[in-house]
Amino acid sequence: MSPTTSTRKLSTRTYEDAVTALNSLQSNAATLEAVRASGGRLSQFAHPEMIEYLGRIGYKPDDLNKLNVLHITGTKGKGSTSAFCDAMLRKTVPSWKVGLYTSPHLVAVRERIRVNGEPISEADFTQYFFEVWDRLQENTTRKLPQTSLMPAYFRFMTLLAFHYFSSIKVDATILEVGVGGLYDSTNIVPKPVVTGITSLGVDHTAVLGNTLGEIGYQKGGIYKPGVPALTVEQPEEGMNAIRDQAKAQKASSFTVVKTMPELQNIKLGLSGVHQFQNASLAVNLVHQYLLARQPHIPEFLPSLYPTPLPPSYIDGLEKTRFPGRCQEVADPEHTKITWFLDGAHTIESLTSCTEWFFEPTVGLKQSDASSKRQRVLIFNCTNGRNGEKFLNVVLDGMKKGVLQHQIDGGAELIERGFFDHVIFCTNITYVDGRSKADLTNNTVDMDALSKLKAQTELSQAWTKLVPNYPKECIHVLPSVQHAIEIVHGLESTGQVDVLTAGSLHLVGGVIEVAGIGSIAMAT
């Protein structure tokens, strides 16, 4: 954004101006690669710099305690757990104004900041965005020489969330960590009400470490003195690191939450067997949170003990919505097409995705007598992740599901790779190379992107894993729109089931281009 644009009066600034300015704060691919090469050593400056930015927009860390934060991290399920907590709090204390901060977004950046389930409006986003932007532009004094004038994208969004939630005086805030925990931008709240860690896995290794012990140490960094610390059952190495952090950070208690059997009687709002673990953690987080806040709750609470579950908890769990995670969407325009959306982008989350999809009531539905059911995979892999390993997870999950459920013709399905078409496309939104402003991503290597390097590698990996797969059914494409056009072209043959996975950015692009946002994004 030019100096002229940045100093315009608020009345002439638009939501598009705000998104364009925000996108200018994205780190480019070269910068990210430098951080990866440094082994994440730049993290030591994360908190001092974030606190300095916070001061430049008029806040002290202690001011954030007024937001009454429930802080959540983990490798897999932190977003879903946050959504469960949000829904249960809103149903249990309906008079409260409940803020929810999550990332990334699917279709519009406003999704990251919600109040009572609704994304911040374009008008409010624009107003509060430029209030933060202008304060940072005007208050240029910096104590730390290495601190840049403007924060990076995620830091700015976190500052914006803090400013917005503070300005409208939310009663409760659910804060999802971006990456890791210890050095994350969200981890400057001195005294959250309760903290929780979902399932651990190996991801963001350049910053967090290569072992579950190192990753557990980073995640456990959100635990705070005198604050309840919760987690779920973890592999021993990760659990030891988390437990050590709880002790080192002087948490008031440390609780390992087991999956609650009584949840099996509830139809959770989020699909997948892994959600029972996330819901169990969420119930216990909300329970601890409400116990701590009870003197300040105006409503009569018939029971705070999580077993038996209070009706408000059950209502919240059943009505939880979190788009793009194990989500089935019937296309309202192209009525023969069903979209199965999951932004799974770690080995663990992709495993959970396959456990959900390869079920007889989901992706293993049989063709009817009148027409053949076409099955399509749309996939992308970003940030240097091992594409062959990820595709192997998909195929292993397929084999397991087909054999377990004794699907007719199962041996042939496994032999030919199950899917009738596989599409490997970039996350670029449109055929002409444009991306919707909200979906612009400057963090990828544009040279590699233009050469479709990652997509070509994925196609080669698929051919290696399924040697007899027809070459004409493997599509390497430069945009999401190209992929959607292929899917639409299959509609004349009968029912089409499309699994989209590997990247939340990809899922967001599919929702946008396929025109299914009115259903997929409904809360």
Head-to-tail CA distance between termini: 33 Å
Beta percentage is: 5-15%
Share of helical residues: 40-55%
Based on CA inertia axes, which overall geometry fits? globular
Work out the radius of gyration: 23 Å
Q: What composes the largest sheet?
A: 8 strands, mixed
* Record field, number of beta strands: 14
Which structural category do the helix and sheet elements fall into?
A: alpha/beta
Runs in which pLDDT lies below 50 for 5 or more consecutive residues are 1-8
Strand order of the largest sheet: 4-3-2-5-1-6-7-8
Mean pLDDT metric: 90
Counting DSSP H or I runs of 4 or more residues, the number of helices is 20
Explained architecture:
- This protein has 523 residues and is an alpha/beta fold.
- The chain contains 20 helices and 14 strands.
- An eight-stranded mixed beta sheet has the order 4-3-2-5-1-6-7-8, with helices on both faces. It has a six-stranded mixed beta sheet with strand order 9-10-14-11-12-13, with helices on both faces.
- The longest helix has 19 residues.
- It is globular and about 65 Å long.
